[in-house]
Each structure stands twice: as structure tokens, then as C-alpha cells.
Amino acid sequence: MSARTARTRLLAAAALTVATLTMTACSSAEGTRDEGAPSASSTATGSSSSSTTSGGTTTGAGQASDKGSTGTTGTSGSTGSSGSSGTTGSTGTSGSTGSSGTSGSTGSSGSTGSDSSDDSESNLSPCTPANTRTTATVVNRPLNHVLLTVTNTGAGNCDLAYYPAVRFGEAQSVPPVIEDSQPQAVVTLAPGESGYAGVTVSAADGSGRDGYTAKTLEVYFNTDSTSPARPTLPAKGVYVDSSITVTYWQSDMADALSW
Q1: Model-level pTM?
Q2: pLDDT category of residue 5 using cuts at 50, 70 and 90
Q3: pLDDT digit string (tens) for 83-95?
Q4: Sign (positive/negative) of CA torsion 192, 198, 199, 202?
Q5: Which ranges carry the DUF4232 domain (predicted)?
Q6: Contact between residue 47 and residue 83 where contact means Cβ atoms under 8 Å apart
Q7: Is residue 94 included in any domain, yes or no?
Q8: Tally of structural domains, the chain
Q9: What is the mean pLDDT of the chain?
């Protein structure tokens, strides 16, 4: 081998050695990049976005009042905030408007007129001992009953209202009335007409207490009367006990004796 050839080979080997050392140095300075790992210069993009607020709430129908109020409009949902690269939250739908409450109905006006029964009573022309004649008759049926008869002897109509307050002998209390005997209207007597009331003076079965024989009778045409009629009783008198009751004034004799 010639000296020229040997020198050439020596230079080639040296160059190869230098190249090898250079590559080795580069490899030790930077190392091998991991393809699976994230780049050191890049930051992970936030993928979570704030939760999206749901659409506005729907208000119920406005409640009725005297002048119905309108329901409140639902509030719009808020838009979700976006992250670095997250998706934008959907906008909430607007709540529906509550329907208007119906206008309250106006209450009917209360009656301002006076009670009809009060009016009818204030227009009564009461019968009195001065314009009537009163009799007391002991009847056979029903047993232990006395029939009171009031006849209009005046020139105009008169009214027998409510029921008689009777007093046999020295009695200190007014006998109770039979409530079921109340007629539908006040008994009005034209001149010559008569009204009636029945008096149960004692119990037919003897169950009454504190019995006595009365020989006098006072009849007040109602509990507001101040002057009584004084019909005569049989000479032997009338037996009265604690079971005494009276009926309301009736326009028919049979009605007065049916209790």
C-alpha cells in the first residue's frame, strides 16, 4: 500500500470518528422525545365549562283577586361560561308568562230594606178588648180543653198576632205555647169575624202537678198587650194543672182544637 492511500484511509476513519462523537453528543444533550407524553410547552386545555343554568322557571297562573294580578314573567337562564377551549353552555329558555288572574266578581249588594216580617208587624192593627168580644168555652172533645173565641165588633179589620197570654185564677206565670201550632200568617178579622185559640188546661192522664180550680180568667191577646179581656168561666170553675199550654191564634176553630 502506498503512503497516499494509507493517509486517505486515516483521514476517512478520523472523519467517521468525529461524526460519531458529534451524534453522540447531540443524543445526550436533548434525549429522545416521548411521542405519547404531552409537550412541555403546551398546557392542557380546560375542558370543563361551568354548568349551564337551566331555562327560566315558569310562573303559575296569577291568582284571582278583586282585580286579578298578572303572573310574573319567568327569568331567562344564564349563559354558561366557556372555559379555555370548553364548549359554551346552552342559553336557558325564557320562562313562560303566568296567565292573568281573573277579575274577582263583585259581591251582590246586601238588602238595605227592613225585614219584611218587621214591616208586616209594624202595619198591624191589633185587636183589643175595646173592639172585640171574648168568650171561653169548656169543650167535650178533646178532653180538658177550653176554646177561646175573639169576635171583631168594630167597624174595621183588626189583627190577632202571636198567641194569647192567659191567667187562670191567681196564676203567676204565662203558659207555654205549642210552637207547631203557629199559622203561616197573622189572623186578620174583618168586622163580625172570629179568631180562635185552644187551651189545654190539664193532662188527660192525670200526670200534671200542682192542680187547682180556677173561677176567673184573664186573656191578653198577646204577650205585649197591657189590658186583658175577662171572659166568664162555668160556675164550678175549671181545673188547671202544670201541663197547661196554649195554641197560636187560628182562623179556624178546628185548628185551634187539634192540639
Answers
A1: 0.55
A2: low
A3: 334 334 444 444 4
A4: positive
A5: 127-250
A6: yes
A7: no
A8: 1
A9: 71
